[in-house]
Amino acid sequence: MMTILKNWKTAAAAAAFAFMPTIASAANLQSDDYVGISFWLISIAMVASTVFFWTEARRVGGKWGVSLLVAALVTLVAAVHYFYMRDVWATTGETPTVYRYIDWLITVPLQMIEFYLILAAVGVAAGRIFWHLLIGTLVMLLGGYFGEVGLIDATLGFIIGMLGWVYILYYIFSGEAAQSAKNAPASVQSAFSTMRLIVLVGWAIYPIGYVLGYMTGSVDPASLNGIYNIADFINKIAFGLMIWVAATSEEA
Q1: Which of 4, 11, 95, 106 shows a CA-CA span of 20 to 30 A to 82?
Q2: Domain count, the chain
């Protein structure tokens, strides 16, 4: 019991520290600013998820403890950046592109590490799986970022980003990571399958938003931020929940 209370206090302190510089933005939130409201809801949901994953990581321990701890890091990093992103949106109405990509450059590689961790925990993953997924992730994110901020043509940035995403999909559906998962226990296979579906279906929201916002211009900045916010909410939290489900299924 004391360990759980200590974990809650640690996570709460981290959340309070990150929340402090953004309290003033509450006065700028309007009741009809649905995108701004989504920034607030998601930032708090990320904090709640962090506390949950952190506590469960310490409770479950063992081979799943590290994976749940990484899930907590993903939502903690996202929460901090959402505090700042909602500040930018509430005070200026501008798209917080830089903050969003800083968040993605940390959290998305961490999510890719999860594939390696759950396989390595049962001894069926080679170290090169981690590097292949990391390289694919960086190609995907840097292509998208350069295209969004105008360092390269938006279409070229989209193509580069898609190449990185397609490579990740190949590696987790047909490549070495997928083959390694076949030798894992049922709980690991279940988590792996669900996680890769999130990467396939959930992550598809991001390129769709990119095309609509930067290539066709058919979506305004407010709608694009709303799309990205919903995608982050689903993908980051659901990703961790799949690991938690697999971890707790082994306890039953």
Answers
A1: 4
A2: 1
Would you state the pLDDT for residue 5?
Answer: 46
CATH of the domain at 165: 1.20.1070.10
Two tokens, residue 177: 């990571």
CA–CA separation, 37 vs 249, rounded Å? 35
Q: The whole model's pTM is what?
A: 0.85
Angle between helices 127-148 and 154-173 (to 10 degrees): 160
pLDDT in tens, 31-70: 778 888 899 899 999 999 999 999 999 898 777 888 899 9
Per-residue CA distances from 230 to 47, 64, 101, 193, 227 (Å): 16, 27, 16, 22, 5
Q: Is the CB of residue 136 less than 8 Å from the CB of residue 167? A: yes
Average pLDDT of every residue of the chain:
84
